[in-house]
Amino acid sequence: ICITLNGHTMASRMRTVVLAWVFFLVTGLMVSLILPLGEGFDEPWHFAYIQYVAQTRTLPPGPTLHLSTELEQFLALHPMGWRLHDIFPNLQTQEQYWQRPESERLSDDDRIRGLRFSTLYTPAQSEFSQQYESHQAPLYYILSAPIFLLCATRFSLVDTFMLVRLWSVLLASTVVPLSYFLAARVSRSNTTANAVALLVAMFPGLYPDVARISND
Question: Tens digit of pLDDT for each residue in 118-155?
């Protein structure tokens, strides 16, 4: 009876945390689906870091590395945000994409859907493909590399891009239960710990960072 009662008490205490965790996952999923691929802050460069670790089993050598040829093609075909266009004028914006003839847009769409990763990492050569995120700490990229390998051998580049993005949301969501346990340890108050977990899950500024491929 005591075990049952204790279990019931623990379930009651964790109910709010579970709801906050589910809220985080649903919101992160929604933002991930709304945000166009590649428009997250430095997202293609973080993605290329994962690809490099997955396909070479080593960490990036430094600033001399470039994005892969597959991601270079993706960036050249897919409309990008204005920030990237300001830095690299050869990349087209969403507005420029929609101003093009329909036949050209549909042709590019077909080419994007047909992109797939090869088994070897082949660096690109264009100016915008320089890998400037190679200095980042490797833990996130090592954790994401198996997901990339699992997806890249079965799905297209676009599908792999989205699935790795959703994996990033799942990783980030652990901040909700972890914040609960930390707050409970510090405050010794279940009410305070629940409030902290809810505050983390409902903080809107968090989602633009976690709903993309990134180590943030």
Answer: 999 999 988 888 888 989 999 999 999 999 999 999 99
212: which 2 tokens? 């993309």
**Through-space distance between the first and last CA atoms of the chain, rounded to whole angstroms:** 45
E strands in 9-121: none
* Angle (CA) 95 78 142, round 5°: 135
Rounded Cα gap, residues 197 and 200, in angstroms: 5
- Specify which residues 73 forms β-bridges with: none
Q: In this structure, are residues 68 and 122 in contact, taking their beta carbons and an 8 Å threshold?
A: yes
Residues 38 and 15: their CA atoms lie apart, in Å, by 36
Cα–Cα distance for residue pair 133/49, rounded to 1 Å: 7
The Cβ of residue 166 has, within 10 Å, a number of other Cβ atoms equal to 17
**Helix, strand, coil share (%) of the chain residues, nearest 5:** 70, 5, 30
Q: How far apart are CA 101 and CA 87, in angstroms?
A: 25
Stated pTM of the model: 0.88
Which residues pair with residue 68 across a beta bridge? 123
Residues 91, 84: contact at Cβ < 8 Å? yes
* Separation of alpha carbons 165 and 77, rounded Å: 20
Beta bridge partners of residue 123, listed in sequence order: 68
Q: Is the dihedral of CA 142, 148, 158, 29 positive or negative?
A: negative
Tell me the pLDDT of the chain averaged across its residues.
89
